[in-house]
């Protein structure tokens, strides 16, 4: 059987597939039309974020039995089309949890001490010691929206720094890592708010103008989850007004994000969707997805 690797994965994962007797073809960076022409020969495809496994790709995959996504979500896979054709879809939700949680924590620290802004100022030859007056995380309240794998990892680290952790998650009744509260309570009481939820009909623009209006003045917002769970226009207004002190964004409604009015604000810390981009996270994702695809094909 043949496995197509259309986005790069860890070499350890590729070796697992080869050692299991599969023919592995690495062909990355294909445009959609080339993927549609290529997929008919393959029994499985493994992707990360770049490749979009659309309905058209799935329909062209005459031999396709398994779609593997090395990562948390399935945003780039038409899972309904796959289900309709009896194709198994697997992913690795736990592989990069620590990587994303550590980025969120790093953003919180960066925001609290204005590290990116101070770096830019110092590099410009300024010495603005009095300007960069920060705040401690110790004793502050972190509100986590979505206390699943990533949210729990962040909560553990925040508590180790002496933060109080509260969480809103409609699917969780209790947690060892924070007190479960309702949405409004979280908004009203948090000094930092970090989102760790998928984008769905229910969560689209979960943080909108009405949500920002309920928050403490000077709140710090971190989104390492999915673009679109925060209303970016409402966030911009909240930053300009001072309601939000700093926003830290790893994800955006439209990606790649090349230009946006949020980019004009110094109090916004930006990264290009790198939450899962660590050596360790990608190694785990590559190995886990290879094992899942192997087991599904040998099933």
From TrEMBL:
CDD domains recorded: PGDH_4
SUPFAM superfamilies tied to this protein: Formate/glycerate dehydrogenase catalytic domain-like, NAD(P)-binding Rossmann-fold domains
Single GO MF descriptor: NAD binding
Gene Ontology biological process terms from the UniProt entry: amino acid biosynthetic process
Domain named D-isomer specific 2-hydroxyacid dehydrogenase NAD-binding: residues: 105-275
EC number: 1.1.1.95
Top EC category: oxidoreductase
Protein name: Phosphoglycerate dehydrogenase
Protein's organism: candidate division WOR-3 bacterium
